[in-house]
Design a protein that fits this description.
Blueprint: E1 4-9, E2 16-20, E3 25-28, H1 34-40, E4 48-52, H2 58-61, H3 64-69, E5 73-77, H4 78-84, E6 91-94, E7 100-102, E8 105-111, E9 119-125, E10 130-134, E11 149-153, H5 158-166, H6 172-181, H7 185-194, E12 202-206, H8 215-226, E13 230-232
Parallel strand pairs: 3-4, 4-5, 5-6, 10-11, 11-12, 12-13
Antiparallel strand pairs: 1-2, 2-3, 7-8, 8-9, 9-10
Length: 233
Amino acid sequence: MTVEIKVLSSGSEGNAVWLSDGETVLLLDAGIRIQEIKEKLNFRLSEVAACLLTHGHGDHTKSADKVLRAGIDTYATEETWEGLGLDGHRKRVLKPMQEVVVGSWAVLPFPTQHIPGSVGFLLASKYGDKGIYITDSMYSRYTFEGLTFLLLETNYSRDILMENVKEGVIDRAYKSRVIKTHMGLETAKEFLRANDLSRVEQIHLVHLSVSNADPVRFKKEVQELTGIPVYVH
């Protein structure tokens, strides 16, 4: 069974991903309006078994309160919950490196390099698919085996970033903040080289910057590197 992935939104305007192995549906982040999520899911929000939040920034949590109120189990680290100030009987606390089972998925949250409490997810379906969701992270400390899909941040390319500083499009402080909190194309390619991609069927590049990324180039470079179908969002 091949996993189905729908990137509902990606980038600084909001992030949300629909993921299904044919049995259990997950929502990864809820960073867009709940009405937009509903519309993009053909108003089948009730089919979502759980929502997994990577961290507390608004472009990943905009509708977290409404997802909770919709009766969907919502998972995040203690730091993320504290920052959001939300509560409810569907609130679930994640502990990094402690696996939780959601229907047919085993979910392992692992620390990312962004803000306190931020995590990525290793997602393993009982039907054999296995993937990662890494967004808003300078790099990954971890490598993985047996992956079949990747959702990987490629926020910027260093040369585009430097050219934008030179042209005055962004300032140096912003450049430094981006480099310290987000994964660039060069780091993403190093990550791909370091991991076992022998079973990977699809790579999704997410959270691209509007001004510091080139979607066509990023897709071409990653596809040439891996030989695997690449989708850019």
